[in-house]
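hey so i finaly got around to running the thing on Glutamine synthetase from Physocladia obscura. pasting the sequence first so u can double check i didnt mess up the copy paste, my clipboard has been acting weird all day
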Amino acid sequence: MSSARTIAIQENVDRPGRSVDWPTVGDRQLFPSEIFGLDVFDRKTMAATLPKPVFQRFSKQVQGRQQLDRPTADAIAHAARIWAMNKGATHFTHWFQPQTGSTAEKHDSFLTLKSQIVAGQEETFAIDAFSGGQLLQAEPDASSFPNGGIRSTFEARGYTIWDTVSPMFIRKGPHGTSTLYIPSVFIGYNGEALDEKSVLLRSSEIISDATVKLLNTLGDHETKRVTTTLGCEQEFFLIDRAIYNLRPDLKIAGRTLIGNPPPKHQQLEDHYFGQIPSRVLAAIAEAEYECARVGVPIKTRHNEVAPSQFEVAPIFEEASIAVDHNLVTMEVLHQVAHRHQLKVLFHEKPFAGINGSGKHANWSIQTDSGDNLLEPTSSPETNYRFLLVLVAILDAVYKHSGLIRSSIASASNEHRLGANEAPPAIVSAFLGAHLSEVLDAIEESRPVAYAAPTAKSSNGISLDLNISTLPPIARDLTDRNRTSPFAFTGNKFEFRAVGSKQSPSFPVVLLNAAVAKSLDLVNDALIAAKGDKAVPSEEDIIGVVRQFIIASKKIRFEGNGYSDEWVVEAEARGLPNIKSCPAAFKQLLTPSSEELLVSQGVLSKSELHARYHIQLEKYAKDLLIEAETLHGLIINGVLPASFTYRKELADSIISQEKVGVEAVPEKRILVALTKTSIELQDATTVLKATIAKVNSLHGDEQGIAAGNELTHSMETVRKFSDAIEAEVADKYWPFPKYTELLF
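ok and heres what it spat out for the 3d tokens, dont ask me to read them lol
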């Protein structure tokens, strides 16, 4: 084993654990609820620190009833600065989400200089200040972020604007200091959306308006606003940092470009929900503590299926805030992992042959009075509001499945989609046996036939386990289907295909837009059905529900989404099976997608085309980075290891034959290794030529060539490299192997 590998493994074994004391009051440890939100400048804190008229004006602004004037902004900025500085803040930053999949921030100090005349001479004083103007907007360089050609290189001006719905918070920094974070949107000089959040906020307003109109038609005039709620289950790997540092592919590409799975990985199914390793638990617990302080409500933590794979999941929140909190969670996990000498991997498929990671986005719609519109209740067949919203969602997914598929397309997620742990590239919706029966019964104008003879409970079906010491339990109305990209799971839809590495924002944007359009169509049909009546009758509602059930029936699938049979059936149904990223990106530019997004004001035509170009360009760049990294691994590591081992074998053969010993075993190994090394050398030469070819192309041609030729060439190189790893003596192998990375 190479000396670097040996040292890294020894460091992993000998490294002491990190301990962080949980805060206490006297002898009592603080409860989680007492820690939650301590570092958030939330509505409660604002009410306590602002004059009442200022807080009332701000509340009206958040509700969309008036604009935020400068005196109000100045007062809020002053209160936020005092609050933040009392907690150690020295800087503030407009924290935003450019189209990079992560976040961006530029720190500005509260420190400023003020001049005044003293005894006839000008003197300069240092003061701490933060104005309303500084709170409301800042100016990062708009040409230095992905913009898809909307901004030229010489047109640099862009603006970040405070998102008043998402509260400010502070994050601890070095030397006991902190920074005040101001959640913001990011736009170009002419108002073009250059970020993820601004379009998410647009889509949230559109789906709110469409849902409120439908509720009004049903006679509900109390609901003034609805929100989409979101909860993102975040999966990730945690590996030792010393071992990670010896893998250039993990450092640069985020995944292993070479390497054989170990003899034991996840086949025994013993890692899922198993005991969390103590070092990992220490890191996750510290991350949960930091998340709680900034108002991120982490609810669960557990081992995932693969070794060294884990998951944390939050309580549901309004979608735009949930996206903010998911990105905060990722950042906190990244930083805390460093403190524990661990490395967090968010790539969707960092290791070949074992499960990858997703970010299951649990999505629903809620009224301003707190009613979940996707709550079926125990009798969904008579819950007409639920049925109308449900069929609108099914209609949206059916009509815009290609567009929804485009939202989760990336070079990293492409390795995961369709594998054994991830939903396939065919978008379908799962409802479960009970709801499927309800819709079938409505379509066929017959009574609902319940699947189980046992009595219904308030939450579903009651199960009696026939164990006297255990109480009966309530069974949900629907089972779960982990092979479905878009599955109903009780009172929400779980968009399982979202990648662990990506921001959940754009998938939610496209889902919101598609559902808003279908809600409008359902509402139009309902208005036509009711005619002159004040509200639609039960017969009117059932007629509309039946119409949309029939129209969207092809998107519903209750079986195994991984099976070959489903691929054949989906094709017969006319459902698209979009396997490649370039083909998925093209869905953004179809006439139906453009009409949907532009007509509703979610994206302008130029913003939509910019999104396409950004995604395609990033895809090609990601693959080129991977290919260049792989080429370096082979030339600088794998082939030299093979050559060194070949020399040792050759020397051994010569020395043995000199003394009259037949070196047959060594010769066999040498011949096989020589053949594989030549094949790897040839494949690497082809890879280098393919890299040069893809680099010379542009636009669509580059993306398609990267997806086809470059990935194929990389797979060939990996096949021969992995074969050499299995043949070369371990002491010559320069890179940590999967066993060392995963265990």
